[in-house]
Specification:
The chain is an alpha+beta fold. 51% of the residues lie in helices and 16% in strands. It is elongated, with a radius of gyration of 34 Å.
């Protein structure tokens, strides 16, 4: 068996070697459903209802002999396809970027140094470091291992973890390391692994639709069916009254284009994809899209203390032996007094040799700084056995043998009450120990107790409890509160979201940290107290509790369910293997990216890359903004189709010449689509986004009041535009003149609807934040109208008349009237 030092001395692959093997074998990933290519996207877009309607209109014009109109429409097909392709690829690129960011990570040894890389970049021959909670990234052979046990149920179906050693050390891609740590050399990657053999079947699995998608598709189906029925009626009436069935077909197709809600699915896809990308820029990765829906509804955030509210930057702050306390900061460069040596020495012996845990790293750093010129580091000793920490006993012990053989030295560290149990302390000693622990914990320090013994028996006992341990002292570690945490807690409280702390720490430590971040206004409940409560009593207690101390990972699941039973929408943070059930049970599971295990990350909806609570608060803010903007965009899309449909229907009903031809509706759609997909997606959050309570998760996408407001705005626009049409007819203007003022007024009313739909719960122009994308869209719409009226060949293609002063006056009056009417509707809605 190789020692860890010997394995690390192997160095691993160099970067050029790894790059060469990656190019030769391809990425380390199994076959999955990949992003659609351009050809696939084009085929999908070509089947869209709007494209089919445009092609049908072009065919009708060709039959009528109007080649110019047919060519304009067919050319517009390519424009619409281009815009749709751009929007779809934009969403695909955002999702691809998220897939790359959230892919599993692997710790490899390359060039003699440890490096964290994406799992897809692991190659054959890599040295991979695996530890408790990691997914094995590829098929590999163990070269060095300590107490490695692997859950291979993914491949074998057997739920019992399998012990692994260098003698039978094959580990497989996708399996989970449930204990221990080791180093393995990769034998096979990607489709060449055992897991890769079943990858092809995974590519055929389609994800189920989310609640939001089902609501949107339901609305689309209802409007589409109603629109098609109306179009058939219009086409029939036109043909019967005028005897022109081709004209009737054209009128029906134009009406179909005017009512078709093709923007709705695009709004949902693009907003969620780009929303997830925006959240990733705030160090939060979205693994499951429904989390974006749930974020705005969260009422309780259950968060870890260590690394989430604190910096997870542990340092030994003090050592305590009997009644003496040694403050490291106060004594700077002074030599550590001899009476404190055993407690630090045995704390180091009870830690992993190459620690990943921040506390053990802090102990290692303190020991090497304070014991470097002493005999207490024991670099030459050999680890004989490890007694791991367990839920039943929060302590761990290491058994060491000196080079010259002889007796075994046993070192233990852990929770003070667990070490007191191991040492079989007398009641008076236990009471004094609790007082010392309370004094250190009240300063916000995390306190461990240290014990040791020497064993000369021929065999080691089965359990660490059978050793005759002697208490050596206490070790206190400081972990500063994140500077951003208090403000983030306040922001969540203002947003109606209750933050509760779940920690395995001592109650006094938890209270001290809670006071610093602003969570000290509630009660404290310990894990032991929680265990003694029935469900009904627990449901009562959690209402006033903000600090849960000495909590075991398996107790988190019970707390999540208790909050949910009380009607809360729960977001839960976690990082360990044992946190996975609670994370999966929570409405929104949040894993820590920096210190979290792979199994925790796989169980969650969100991954916080920097482990910072402020990032979770920022994700809530962005989640609320995304949901608000989806509502605004869909509300606008509903409103804008009302005047278009009205102007398409009125001439048919009145027996007048058609005003809106398919080409005009295409031009309107070229404004509507970017507005929905670009302008509203970039809309900043409302000023009160974090000052209102969480939304009800059972709320529909659009409430009845919101639907009524959108339809009312659309009806007002329809009245203004149809009023302009009727006025033009009464004034005796020609068909082209009537079309000119009506179409131009409709374009201006569309701009007004964009501005009116920007706000919810505010007046039309109240407190607007600049939206550059919206400014570009509005400017482009006004520019397109200007070109349509001013450029002769464009005007001719659109069958518009050269505008006179009277026409311009009517257009400006109509646009201003629409804008004023929208403002009045918004004010009335507020009242």
């Amino acid at each position: 068996m190789l020692s860890e030092r010997e394995v690390r001395a192997l160095g691993g692959l160099t970067d050029p070697e790894a790059a060469s093997r990656l190019a030769r074998d391809g990425p380390n990933e199994i076959t999955t459903a990949r992003a659609r290519g351009r050809i696939g996207l084009l085929g999908e877009i070509a089947g869209e209802p709007m494209i089919l309607l445009l092609l049908a209109c072009g065919a009708v014009y060709l039959v009528l002999g109007d080649r110019e109109e047919a060519l304009v429409l067919l050319a517009s097909v390519f424009v619409v396809i281009g815009i749709t392709l751009y929007q779809s690829r934009r969403a695909e690129r955002a999702l691809e970027a998220l897939r790359d960011l959230s892919s599993p990570r692997a710790l490899v040894v390359r060039g003699g140094t440890e490096r964290r890389i994406a799992g897809r970049d692991v190659v054959a021959g890599d040295l991979v470091v695996v530890a408790e909670g990691d997914r094995v990234p590829a098929d590999a052979t163990l070269l060095w291992a300590i107490n490695v046990r692997v859950d291979e149920s993914l491949l074998s179906g057997e739920s019992v973890p399998v012990a692994k050693s260098v003698d039978d050390g094959a580990v497989y891609a996708g399996t989970l390391v449930v204990s221990g740590q080791g180093i393995a050399r990769v034998d096979a990657t990607g489709p060449r692994t055992r897991l890769g053999a079943i990858g092809t079947s995974l590519a055929t699995v389609e994800p189920t639709a989310t609640s939001l998608e089902r609501q949107v598709h339901g609305v689309v189906r209802i409007v589409a069916v109603g629109g098609i029925a109306l179009c058939l009626v219009v086409a029939g009436l036109y043909g019967l009254r005028r005897g022109d069935w081709l004209g009737g077909a054209l009128a029906g197709l134009a009406l179909a284009m005017s009512v078709m809600p093709e923007e709705f699915p695009m709004i949902l896809t693009l907003f969620l994809a780009l929303g997830a990308w925006r959240i990733s820029r705030r160090n939060v990765l979205v693994r499951r899209m429904p989390a974006l829906e749930a974020l705005g509804a969260a009422t309780v955030l259950c968060v870890d203390k260590t690394g989430t509210l604190t910096e997870n930057r542990m340092a030994v702050a003090a050592l305590a032996v009997n009644d003496s306390v040694y403050e490291l900061r106060a004594h700077g460069g002074e030599a550590l007094p001899e009476r404190f040596h055993p407690s630090l020495e045995f704390a180091l012996l009870a830690s992993q040799a190459n620690a990943f845990d921040p506390m053990e790293r802090a102990i290692d750093a303190a020991a090497r700084a304070l014991l470097r010129d002493t005999e207490h580091l024991h670099a030459e000793w050999a680890l004989v056995r490890e007694y791991p920490l367990s839920p039943a006993l929060l302590a761990m012990s290491h058994v060491w043998r000196a080079v010259d053989g002889g007796a075994w030295t046993v070192a233990a560290k852990g929770a003070p009450e667990a070490i007191a149990d191991l040492c079989h302390l007398a009641p008076t000693t236990s009471t004094r120990l609790r007082g010392d622990v309370e004094a250190l914990a009240a300063r916000g320090l995390r306190v461990l107790a240290v014990a040791g013994t020497v064993v000369r028996a021929p065999a080691l006992p089965v359990a660490q409890h059978d050793f005759a341990f002697e208490l050596l002292g206490l070790l206190a570690l400081a972990d500063p509160v994140r500077a951003s945490a208090p403000a983030a807690v306040r922001e969540c409280r203002t947003a109606g979201i209750r933050t509760v702390m779940l920690t395995g720490d001592y109650p006094a430590t938890a209270r001290a940290i809670a006071a610093q971040v602003g969570l000290a206004d509630g009660a404290l409940l310990t894990g032991a107290e929680l265990e003694a409560l029935d469900d009904a009593t627990l449901a009562e207690r959690i209402r006033a509790t903000t600090i849960f101390a000495r909590i075991q990972p398996e107790q988190k699941l019970r707390l999540v369910r208790a909050f949910q039973a009380a009607g809360d929408v729960v977001a839960m943070t976690g990082d360990g293997v044992n946190d996975a059930p609670a994370l999966r049970a929570a409405d929104i599971g949040v894993a820590m990216g920096a210190r979290g295990t792979d199994v925790a990350r796989e169980a969650v909806d969100l991954v916080v890359v920097d482990d910072d609570f402020a990032s979770i608060a920022a994700a809530v803010r962005l989640g609320r903004r995304i949901f608000d903007n989806i509502r605004k965009a869909i509300g606008y899309a509903m409103a804008v189709h009302v005047p278009i449909a009205a102007v398409s229907l009125l001439p048919v009903a009145a027996g007048w010449p058609l005003v809106l031809l398919p080409v005009h509706i295409v031009l309107l759609e070229l404004v509507i689509d970017p507005t929905c997909s670009v302008a509203f997606e970039a809309e900043p959050e409302e000023p009160d986004v974090m000052a209102r309570p969480p939304r009800d998760p059972h709320d529909p996408l659009l409430r009845r009041t919101a639907i009524a407001e959108s339809l009312l705005l659309g009806a007002v626009a329809a009245c203004v535009v149809c009023g302009m049409l009727v006025a033009a007819r009464l004034l005796g203007w020609s068909a082209d003149e009537t079309r000119t003022v009506t179409f131009a007024t409709l374009m201006l009313a569309n701009v007004g609807l964009i501005l009116a739909s920007r706000t919810t719960g505010r007046a039309m122009f109240a407190g607007h934040v600049r939206n550059r994308a919206l400014g570009v869209v509005v400017a482009a719409a006004l520019g397109a109208l200007g070109v349509a009226l001013a450029v002769p060949f464009v005007r001719s293609a659109l069958r518009l008349a050269a505008p006179s002063a009277a026409h311009v006056g009517a257009i400006v009056t109509g646009g201003a009237g629409a804008l004023a009417a929208f403002g009045l509707v918004k004010r009335a809605r507020l009242r």
